[in-house]
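Why run this: before we spend reagent on co-expression, it is cheaper to look at a predicted model of the complex and decide which construct boundaries make sense. The entries below are exactly what would go into the expression plan.
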Amino acid sequence: MVYLTRKEHFNAAHQLHNYDWSDEKNIEVFGKCANKNFHGHNFDLFVTVKGKPNPETGFVMNAHILSKLMKQEVVARLDHKNLNLDVPEFTGLMLSTEIVVQQIWKWLQPHIASNACQLHCIKLYETENIYVEYFGE
Amino acid sequence: MVYLTRKEHFNAAHQLHNYDWSDEKNIEVFGKCANKNFHGHNFDLFVTVKGKPNPETGFVMNAHILSKLMKQEVVARLDHKNLNLDVPEFTGLMLSTEIVVQQIWKWLQPHIASNACQLHCIKLYETENIYVEYFGE
Amino acid sequence: MVYLTRKEHFNAAHQLHNYDWSDEKNIEVFGKCANKNFHGHNFDLFVTVKGKPNPETGFVMNAHILSKLMKQEVVARLDHKNLNLDVPEFTGLMLSTEIVVQQIWKWLQPHIASNACQLHCIKLYETENIYVEYFGE
Amino acid sequence: MVYLTRKEHFNAAHQLHNYDWSDEKNIEVFGKCANKNFHGHNFDLFVTVKGKPNPETGFVMNAHILSKLMKQEVVARLDHKNLNLDVPEFTGLMLSTEIVVQQIWKWLQPHIASNACQLHCIKLYETENIYVEYFGE
Amino acid sequence: MVYLTRKEHFNAAHQLHNYDWSDEKNIEVFGKCANKNFHGHNFDLFVTVKGKPNPETGFVMNAHILSKLMKQEVVARLDHKNLNLDVPEFTGLMLSTEIVVQQIWKWLQPHIASNACQLHCIKLYETENIYVEYFGE
Amino acid sequence: MVYLTRKEHFNAAHQLHNYDWSDEKNIEVFGKCANKNFHGHNFDLFVTVKGKPNPETGFVMNAHILSKLMKQEVVARLDHKNLNLDVPEFTGLMLSTEIVVQQIWKWLQPHIASNACQLHCIKLYETENIYVEYFGE
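The model came back. Tokens follow.
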């Protein structure tokens, strides 16, 4: 079993806002992340797949195909977007990075499964000081 | 003459939009950066000052004072803000990074001048692949 | 189960010295790390917690609270300190990074447990080329 | 159980080429990585060992000894080499990074085992955007 | 005057070899960099242009156009290539990084000049520890 | 004229202390950097030389020779040392990074001058957020 990781990135705006709460409570819990006019980040996305290398190619998965899948399934949906306003799957949700990685898993998992290896981890950096990881369960 | 550089950062949303142009022209020139709902970045700010080290402290300028000035004059105004909507100095302007560095110079320059050294350069990273520098003229 | 990691840093002096050994043996085993006058590092600390995201906040744990805990329990004790001389818990100990991460676990674990998620990993970079990880057992 | 990781690096040329395939098929599958005249990378190698810290040294393993082993067993064989032409163990093989990490495990594992701790992971960055990990099985 | 810098990268094989010298002298001067079978690097290229921001766009130069020029004029010629064998402009030359940056200037300069701003600097990282800069004279 | 930069690093302890001042005044001006028991850093040193590439080697200066000079003249003096106690040139001085870069210039300049190129800049990172540059006057 060998693990292959590929990095892509996207730049997006978002806000942390619980629509069931008052503005005051949102600011109390989320602080400046609750700014109504949004703020934004350069998100770095690392996707790890695992499997047995194919004897003909030496690859767990062709890294160029993994890159294309990440661009098609994730970057195309999120890059230069407002995560709260522009992404149907996120409408009305609390948009913590924890929620975003679980959705990225849902977008990617069916495509990885069809490439004879398994999706292992979605890792998403919000800043260089904060990142979140999800392993599918 | 010795040069001292200090890094701070802020996370913000913005869009590139010329209010005198049609939406079509904005998209033609600025591409996905013209998204009406904004996108965002983790901005890294490097400020360089220059001077002769003070014989008592060995400092061109106390780096903690420089850090405080950057937080007070720049980070407090821009962090977790929407650059187009939340910053009075930017209202109605084309918000390229080139414009932002010139405004940061204006905010910081009077404070640096009063510390017996000179402001030398404002360097702002929009992403790890794009940065802009301004030397005051 | 989602994993959240937060980075903080501290700058400290230390030396590697076994007080039961002769100076010669200390130098033989630890080389220049045994310098009697100390050397130092910029330590980067990554703390990972894991749990189920809270449905109201979307958070495994509020990253600002995690940051505050790391500053209060670790950075306040170690930043700009001499690890051998200034930290009561380290008096008389061999101060390898392996020992430091286990003590950081002890400082942080009670506080994380009370936040409805679990401490998962303490990762400490001594330089960009050496780091140590501890998972609590 | 504590985990210690050490980084070393090497610069090497290679190509992706299955010798049982036509040139056309190699280009179809491997793209520009199949260039007959080779291309190259700055490879960053991270080796992780695990064990119980020795009470006399505080070390899972002396990081200087780990560094020397990595230089002697890996860097000396691969640095400033052509992986396809200069390394006997790689002759005639598909030289994906997946294959390289498994060979590095074979070179290092006997030496780590004799140091009272276990080899845990070989992690190899081909570029800053692609890396591969191997845990020995 | 504002300065804009854009980063792109390419991966390539090369060797340092003076064709007028014996193999022994090449190895004496260039060491392992003279390996006949080549070695390689991940090259990071930073191109800086300078000018007065255009009042309509706020840009010294559109960073996407700069990126496209760098890809078209430099990356397309050098990425996944053998610098000694695959690049007509380098045939028979000593291929130090110093020579490469001067050629990159020649490829880019005519295109930048036609965009109402000036080429200022070509900066090329061979590894994270060595880089070369050229300012056109 | 081409510019070549080489990076080396050293780890050292130091304190900021003006011996003509009371302890109270030292703490007032230098804060926690005045800790009597020292603190420390991983210092990253970048040395830039400039000159006309030699037609036989293509080099402004052989980067391996520059690396050796930096190790012999700077790293051997400062690595794993206490800058206040172990370095004769620093005895009794205010040990700001501004002072250190000027001394590094003095150590390196005679050796660079004898290699047919000129020393251009000493750049020293104290942390990833603070660095100082000196150009010789």
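The two ends of chain C are 20 Å apart (CA to CA). The beta strands of chain C are 2-14, 39-51, 81-82, 118-127, 130-134. Bring this page to Monday's planning discussion.
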